[in-house]
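Bug report

Summary: structure tokens for Cupin domain-containing protein differ between web form and batch submission.
Environment: batch mode, default settings.
Steps: 1) Submit the sequence below via batch. 2) Compare with the web form result.

Sequence submitted:
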Amino acid sequence: MTLSRDELDEFAKSMARAGGRDSQHVGEKHLVVSSAEAHWIQTASPSQIGLLLRIPARSIEIFLQKIPAGEASDLHRHVHESIHFVQHGSGWSEIGDQRVRWSAGSFVYTPPWIWHRHYADDGRDVEMIVIENSRLLAAVDASQRESMGNASFADAFGANTE
């Protein structure tokens, strides 16, 4: 098999990029992004997601999440891992067969492909920063998410998480 001139040129470019890995030049814009730049979208549940699309990360996704007081996210699962950092408010999560409580300052870890749902206590909205490795999985076409809507874990699986 003979490679075309274009294929050889592309290979040469990729080798040149690999050789320049020690360069300290940062070409990405938006190394600092304000939470005020978040683009808020309403999800199917009462929670909202604040997209921070200008962050140039290639393997992780970072976004904001708000859950109104007394409300919850949907019961869902995804193949990526996620960590929620609770900035304000308190509540609990059903993560598989466990029910865990959290409050401001907590980090809440959700393993891959485990059904989970996050609940805000009455009295104050919950605000969280969410970090996921979803971009990495999307880059290799391995992302997947499923939702059961507003069902609780007990409703969906007949099991109590308390």
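Above is the batch result. After comparison, the two runs are identical; trailing whitespace caused the diff. The domain at 28-157 is CATH 2.60.120.10 (Jelly Rolls). The CA atoms of residues 41 and 114 lie 24 Å apart.
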